[in-house]
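Review form for a predicted model. The reviewer records the input and the model, then writes brief findings.
Reviewer: anonymous (R2)
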Amino acid sequence: MSSCIARHDREGQRNHICNIIEKYKPRVSRYPSTFRNNCKKIDSGVNNKINFIKNVLFCVCPENSSYELYHTEKIFHAFEGGTIPIYWAVDRPEKEIINENSYVYCNINNSDISKIQSAIDNPNKFKDQNIFKSQGKIHSFHRVKCASP
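Model under review:
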């Protein structure tokens, strides 16, 4: 169902999001790293991460910190793995090119419980979306494989 691959959770954003998922759908999330480990650990490296998340529907992929204009590769790894990202940062990433309806953006200051529950109940709402906006240079990239609910 969902996964979060992380070594730590210094600011608590991963716990916050994962707790919402676990409360709504207990025992369906997989954590293959140091953070909440509950399954076989995966080796380090981007390919191992992407191959692991290909088997889940949602990837919890918040940023490590909240700074203006701070966005990393995390949401792109989730897209590449064919998942629906559940993402948190100070703001939405790459607003000019990423379709905001193709992932779940969490503002953990506002809790977002109903938003995450709605995504879990209606994953096709996200899976059926183009990842990139049509005005972006790359707009033909689609999820190749997304796990079944």
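Findings: The beta strands are 2-3, 29-30, 58-60, 84-88, 104-106.
Further findings: The two ends are 7 Å apart (CA to CA).
Recommendation: see findings above.
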